[in-house]
Task: inverse folding
């Protein structure tokens, strides 16, 4: 079990968690709440000057933890795969402009071809982006997604697979995001977190909770403590590897998005100290 | 890849697949459609004499493949766990009366305790039922469930875990059901099917498909060919172990349950020959 959290210096909140707020408002509120970090979703940057937005965040004492998201590499046609690579190169440029050290990848999966083929295309897509990532000083961070997304969102569904892939690519510009929502059920999780840390690939740690019942496969994530995930135990495993990065709260929730976001942010802070 | 299926002698349909039909109607229709087997859900037996129902099925040339379902062993209180064991003993009696050679187990999971604890309680619960199962000549068949059900329906979420558990119990009265819906995403599936067959534990094979998108976590399964599961490849792996049992079509679908069940049964037969 990890030690209790006592302040918000290592708390990072994703812009999508408080989706109703534009990034400027979210940044002011996070900053006023003494939250240390922000992860920026690309949709939050629409119509903004990205470099100025990065400066705005830093001026508010927010560390830019990552840019979400790149990926979606697999596709049935070579043209579509090339377009995906182009979009990932653009995401790397955006991360550099924003001052984000990594782009988190939802790797993708193409119904109509095997998961094995999709995984190959993911690795090929990452390889095609790697030198650009290196020049930009931006890490490509593989986020293994829950097996319920294997059909259309990610063919990388366990930490073991992400470890295999990161080790095969074997680059300082590739990392892995451990998200409790996607991985909590895995009986091999403790071992795979150890392996991930030992090989220098553990780049990000995402928090929320798994509600029973879950009413929507995408947008019914719980606040920490509302569900059944062994959060402190998993954070303990992550920290035992030497990880001292941010604890990123990433909650997609139709329920919370409908509520007052100030109240929601208060609940996040309480749940962070009490249940994470 | 498995050889194409050419007739319906090894097709089994679950009563829940055509839920709007009472079991008597389902049995007549399956029999008239030259379907070889039926798996009976316990709710279909409500108010029936179970022994007579079994005879009725056999008189219609339907092989009774299994009774669904027992399980749900884990619980926070000892009383509730004892009640679960009692219900499983009852399910074994029902299977014996029906003439079903096995009870399929949805093993259960209790939010509020760890998956590790739930798994221990599943194994303990099965152990408590084993001598009764042996006397009845009924097999307890572990069905590993998709990780999206880890929170509240099953703490056994991979075939590797089911294999571990069956091998630990090591009894001729314990088996495993391989359901493509739950297991298709697993990169280790081929190996684990081999292991399962080699150790004599592969007792049942369930078919349907995974739709993208999936609109409901419980009741939006697809007909074979409607989704992205590599059905023929998985059936090939299963048959390579020497398995020659039924291919059981188990589809929970709000969409199909609302349609004409005669038409649906026709579609099942077509999809069985073409896409399974």
Result:
């Amino acid at each position: 079990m990890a030690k209790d959290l006592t302040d918000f210096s290592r708390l990072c909140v994703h812009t999508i968690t408080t989706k109703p707020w534009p990034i400027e408002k979210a940044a002011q509120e996070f900053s006023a709440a003494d939250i240390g970090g922000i992860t920026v979703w690309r949709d939050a940057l629409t119509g903004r000057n990205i470099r100025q937005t990065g400066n705005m965040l830093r001026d508010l004492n927010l560390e830019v933890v990552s840019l979400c998201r790149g990926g979606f590499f697999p596709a049935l046609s070579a043209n579509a795969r090339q377009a995906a690579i182009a979009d990932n190169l653009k995401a790397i440029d955006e991360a550099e402009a924003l001052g984000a050290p990594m782009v988190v990848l939802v790797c993708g999966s193409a119904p109509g071809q095997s998961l094995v083929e999709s995984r190959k295309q993911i690795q090929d897509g990452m390889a095609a982006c790697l030198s650009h990532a290196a020049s930009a000083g931006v890490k490509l961070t593989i986020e293994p997604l829950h097996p319920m997304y294997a059909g259309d969102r990610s063919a990388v569904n366990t930490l073991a697979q992400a470890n295999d892939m990161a080790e095969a690519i074997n680059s300082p510009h590739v990392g892995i995001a451990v998200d409790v929502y996607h991985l909590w059920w895995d009986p091999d999780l403790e071992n795979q977190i150890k392996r991930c840390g030992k090989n220098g690939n553990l780049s990000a740690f995402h928090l929320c909770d798994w509600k029973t019942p879950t009413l929507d496969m995408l947008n019914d994530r719980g606040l920490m403590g509302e569900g059944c995930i062994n959060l402190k135990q998993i954070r303990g495993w992550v920290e035992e590897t030497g990880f001292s990065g941010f604890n990123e709260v990433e909650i997609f929730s139709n329920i919370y998005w409908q509520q007052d976001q100030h109240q929601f942010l208060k609940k996040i802070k309480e749940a962070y100290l009490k249940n994470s």
Summary: The mean pLDDT of chain B is 98. Chain B has one domain: 11-275.
